[in-house]
Amino acid sequence: IARPVGNNDQSTWIVLGFIVERKCLNDLNESIRNCRLAEQRTRLISTGMKYVTYLIEGSIEDDPELANSENALATTVAKLDAIYGMHILRTREMKETIWTLGTLTRSIFKKINGTFPDGESYDTWKVRAKKTQLRHETAGFKFGAQLRQIRGNSAHRVSAIMQKYPTYVALKRAFEACECPEHETAI
Hints:
Blueprint: E1 14-15, E2 18-24, H1 25-33, H2 36-46, E3 51-57, H3 70-82, E4 87-91, H4 94-111, E5 120-121, H5 122-128, H6 139-148, H7 155-164, H8 168-176, H9 181-186
Parallel strand pairs: 2-3, 3-4
Antiparallel strand pairs: 1-5
Helix pairs in contact: 6-7
């Protein structure tokens, strides 16, 4: 966001074509597990920013609890870069993150050449970038997110379950209709 020095009137602020999403590695892992990352990624893409950067802070070596998630994290970061065209920056700790953000700010200032740039108004952008709530309000989406929390449930497995039982109620009814323990096991 660019604003004239000393001016706190948001109606005069301009949104530049840059956005940086900072994620700690454990938060990125949690966002993958509970399906928030897809919504966050979609929202970042829909902002229309020319330069979308994920600044990922932390290291798997520094957090042994993330060792089991190493492949999922690596795959996700590769997809953000290769498929979605987002820039990826990595830092090991907060101090390095602060330094990186300062460097990015100075680079943006150089890019706009110290002049007050043209761009979209902050108020207009804020409305367009607002979180979408509808997808999270569906029973099926919530059921999928709950299934994803169960250790060992891959995205493929959750997808297969949801094709047959799109909601918790559908799965519950299938269990209630079972006439013997073998049918319950088959479900």
